[in-house]
């Protein structure tokens, strides 16, 4: 799942580079590798298609995960 997300991001960034969209290129790179950001790491949704970034969404996803595997 993580690999699929990384592949999609790499293709997106490559598209920006191919079309000389440098503003979007650097913005996408910074979103992935910005070391100054602290806080909650993104998490994939249960179906693996959506990246959850809001803390409330991530907490709900973790609760769902543990309910599923511990019950």
From TrEMBL:
Superkingdom of the organism of origin: Eukaryota
Protein name: Uncharacterized protein
């Amino acid at each position: 799942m993580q690999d699929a997300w990384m592949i999609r991001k790499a293709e997106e960034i490559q598209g920006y580079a191919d079309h000389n969209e440098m503003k979007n290129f650097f913005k996408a790179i910074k979103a992935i590798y910005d070391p100054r950001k602290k806080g909650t790491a993104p998490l994939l949704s249960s179906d693996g298609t959506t990246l959850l970034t809001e803390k409330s969404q991530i907490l709900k996803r973790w609760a769902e995960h543990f309910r599923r595997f511990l019950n």
